[in-house]
Amino acid sequence: MPNRLIHETSPYLLQHAHNPVDWYPWGEEAFAKARAEDKPIFLSVGYATCHWCHVMERESFEDPEVAAFLNAHFVPIKVDREELPDVDQVYMNALQAMTGSGGWPMNMFLMPDLRPFYGGTYFPPRDHPQLPSFRRLLEGVHNAWLHRRQDVLENAEDLTKALSNALRPQSAPLPDDLHPSALAGLSRAFDQSYGGFGGAPKFPHAPALLYLLCHAWLGDRVAWKHLELTLERMMEGGIYDQVGGGFHRYAVDGIWRVPHFEKMLYDNAQLARVYLGGYKLSGKPRYRQVAEEILRYVLREMTGPQGEFWSAQDADSEGVEGKFYVWSEAEVREVLGSDAEAAIRLFGVSEAGNWEGVNVLERRFPDEALRESLGLSPQAYSEWVESVRARLYERRKRRVWPLTDDKVLADWNGLMLRALAEAGRLLGEERYLEAARANARFVLGTMVAEGLLRHSWRAGKLRPEAYLSDQASYGLGLLELYQATGEMEWLEAAHQRAEGIMAHFRDPEGGFRDSPSEKLPIKAKDAYDGPYPSPSASAAELLFRLAALYERPEWYEAALSAVEVYARSLQHSPFGFSALLQAHLVGAQGSELALVTPSRWATEAQKLYLPLTTLAIGPSHTLPVLAGRKAGLAYVCRRGVCRLPSEDFQGLKAELHALYPNARLD
């Protein structure tokens, strides 16, 4: 018989709906039961494409004896971290404070009033040298609850107090060398051989790459050197799906070879922008190709019938991690026939394989050398590679596909909206703009309630939660769609998101809070980047950009305050705050480009890659920043102070060069 999760829409919760554990969803029914029966809450947090979440479910949550003990002595709650990011953030901070590390599944023990007192991540079914079995852990916590309640209470009180103190603002003046110092800090973490940051497991860390990209555009050669090496090594490795396009979540090694095979919407949205920017700076066609392959992958496999973008694809297929993506040499030969020998060199295939007896495809063999050995022209070689990839993809389609988590998250959709709109603008590709418009129509028409964008939608059901990340990330996507099309409806919708941020997410202690909810024992507020920008960073960037277009100085001041709250963190931990540093760069060195229509050359100007510039396009009566400007001219401004108007494209580039003397404006 299914448990209460059968009534939920989250694919992750539905995976657990037939467990013998008497799971509750997060909510007052579970909290009231814990209070009434004086039982601790067992909170288990994960997500649909989490490999170790699946493992722990099979080993423990499907075990009738474990489930019986859990049901008798605890109130078990299951949470999809992607659906309730504030719950995940608060208790992950607690777990990291207790143990020094975190991860998923996250398993926490809470007082009935929701204060945490103990926790961990994965627990095995039997005792290990470093870990107790899950059953023994439950018995130990139950014994402490019965016989050492005062210790449990003191632990909860001390932990809650420490976490609350850690959230207090530590504002400080921003130093003049903030960005040079941050770049030096990032450089110290950089892998000089394979790019990226640190060793295994190696994540792309897209916010840091976007920050490097912006400095590379400004002319910083070290930033470009680091970024270029990372782009080259990542697109060669197995972390990139060489057959279908798109990036896996991370590599388990330090050389980008073997991925953890799940694919996330947020990674691919950001990395499409990184490769697109790399193409605009370098002119390398391969970077554009990777960016477009990512976008085509998302439109093909991660887009719903109404233009909505889905969240993720699982690492596992038929219960085996990576099975959908790996190849034997024999299968490659069978599919490709006479082309197999060259393709084996192209993708580094061998009989022994490069991972557990099979092959994760890579592209480390020099293309030029292979092209010459085949006697093909550059165009013919490119067509041959695409033919090989297409045939492998068609064979792979016959396999059992991994699960696709088809819930729609507003903030992640905003990241992909921004990527598609930017690609459409810079590349002049209408198909990307049409996909962006379709998404915007769906999200704005389906996921807004009482003026706020709601976080999660699936199967016709909209959840009530609204987060800072939703307003900010989707607002930036809408702003980019306006910049690409000049269509005011998207800018007006971005303006509404900014109004929502100012009305509902300001923190009296400084900056923004991630959630307006008062139910959690600790405030949800964190500017530290995960795999995508922190909510505060996205909010600050949106407000910096819109403040200039709408002449709203109070928005600029709110954004600057949100940066200054974390001044010490920016100086000491630039890697964890790259997106907030990027937002500050927009505020400190950003500009506005007012293109007053009708104009003969506005479309040409729209295609410029200007990561620190916000475009305003339209007749003079449509926006404060355009008011009083002459049609057909372009004005480069910085917070209302404008340079001489430009009458043609070359004049505009000269004015931009005056602001950004080392930037590439080709």
Structure characterization notes:
Helix 11 packs antiparallel against helix 12 (285-301) and helix 11 (265-282) packs parallel to helix 17. The strands form seven sheets. Strands 1-3-2-4-5 form a five-stranded mixed beta sheet, with helices on both faces. Helix content is 50%, strand content 10%. The radius of gyration is 26 Å and the shape is globular. It is α+β, with helices and mostly antiparallel strands. The longest helix is centred in the middle third of the chain and has 19 residues, at 378-396. Strand 14 (448-449) and strand 15 form a beta hairpin.
> Roughly what percent helix?
40-55%
Distance between the termini: 64 Å
Shape: globular
Separate helix tally? 26
In spatial order, strands of the major sheet run: 1-3-2-4-5
Which segments are poorly predicted (pLDDT under 50) over 5 or more consecutive residues? Answer: none
Averaged pLDDT, please? 95
Strand content: 5-15%
Q: What does the main sheet amount to?
A: 5 strands, mixed
The chain-level structural class is alpha+beta
Rg on CA atoms, Å: 26 Å
Topology, number of strands: 21
